[in-house]
Amino acid sequence: MVRSSLPAARNSVVALWFVLLGLVSLLGGAFFGCIAAMQFVYAGFASFVPFVSNRPLHVSLVVAWIFFSAIGGIYYYLPQWSGGWWHASRMQRVHFGLSVIVGTCILACYFFGIFGGREYWEYPPVFSAFIAVAWAIFGINFFLAVRTLRGRWPVYVWMWATGIVFFMITFGESNLWLLPAIRNDPIRDVTVQWKAYGALFGSWNMLVYGTSLFLMERISGNRDVAWSKSAFLLYALGFVNLLFGWAHHIYVVPVSPLIGGIAYVVSMSEWILFFRIIYNWRKTVSAARMHSWLFSYRFLVTADGWIFLNILLALLISIPAINVFTHGTHITVAHAMGSTIGINTMILLASCYYIVYDSAKSPAAARPVAAELWGWIVLNASLVLFWLMLIVAGIEKGILVARGVEFHAVMAAITPFMRAFAWSGIGVFVGLALVVVPLGTRLIRELAVGAERQPATTVLQPD
What we know:
Blueprint: E1 2-4, H1 12-41, H2 51-82, H3 89-111, H4 126-146, H5 155-174, H6 180-183, H7 186-220, H8 229-244, H9 257-282, H10 287-292, H11 294-317, H12 320-326, H13 330-359, H14 370-402, H15 407-448, E2 459-461
Antiparallel strand pairs: 1-2
Helix pairs in contact: 1-2, 1-3, 1-15, 2-3, 2-7, 2-13, 3-4, 4-5, 5-7, 5-8, 7-8, 7-13, 8-9, 9-11, 11-13, 13-14, 13-15, 14-15
């Protein structure tokens, strides 16, 4: 083993800024999601921001939360593993500044009703070029930082590297609709777009799963977590799922049945293995270490519960005969929300808590307050109701549509469930606010004093 005592996060201030930007995006995305949900069930609600703007505001901010918090984590964690520092701190600052400027311009476009893109990227396509540049800067800096490191990489470094590379590839694919050869062929257009979006989810899953495995290693103090056969099998399954997992979204498009079958098997195997890894990891965490990283541990365990629930749902909706009736209903939304909020957001909140605890000058200053404890309870209780109401509404809609009931009658029948969904969404926002506001306040305090972490533990690398 190579033992290093180098300062682990000399450039951690930019990491904290990215995490703070992610938390602001999460709260903003939840806020606009609540308004959009209420507008969906109550005509005329908050008409000063129309639904056509609220929806992309919600989606874009939530996607920004996932990427910004994951990027902040990578900026913070990689030096803790390597014992060194990032190759170019100026590149980090340019990356952050460009992200803020482009993000602000995109939000302004949505507010003023200026669109031009596709699903998830509904802003004018010109901004895609700047996003690509920001990711290229991040990717170059990442590989410059890891290229000189000795020894084998732990699984989370492989996951981060794969997520960065394939985001840039899939982001490019998602913009292929700008080419007339794609845009003018409906079947090709739908296939390429869904393939790109499915693989895009796979790329951010790589970033999130890598973050979770790093946290499990640090919280438990057990290096074997990131070097086990199960961890590398998860990476392999995640990579195959990134390449093929999108296919279960397009059973209605004429693609090879073999690809659809691979997508179904791999998607289920990946989640089952991830659930098993976290479940087994819980048994290795001592009471003392669990208490030291209480909220990081709690959010990781919560994510494991949501993985289990989403496995049950995904097993059903990935069956082609069922998928034909459920795809495009609120069950698909429930699946997406269970993944985005229940799994990805819980893992990333665990990451945010770890970073705040780790960077705090006084560990006591980073401990959760009563509001955060209540926030965790309200968030998960509301999310369960939120998820169940979408499933019930989707089942009802699928049955009525299959019977040939007219659309307006279908929507009238599911309105009570959608109202319960909208109000539970407000509960999700309240729970998130109770967690995010105190956490963000601590981050601002750390940034105000120019906090830079000096690690308390020695960094170990393999020979």
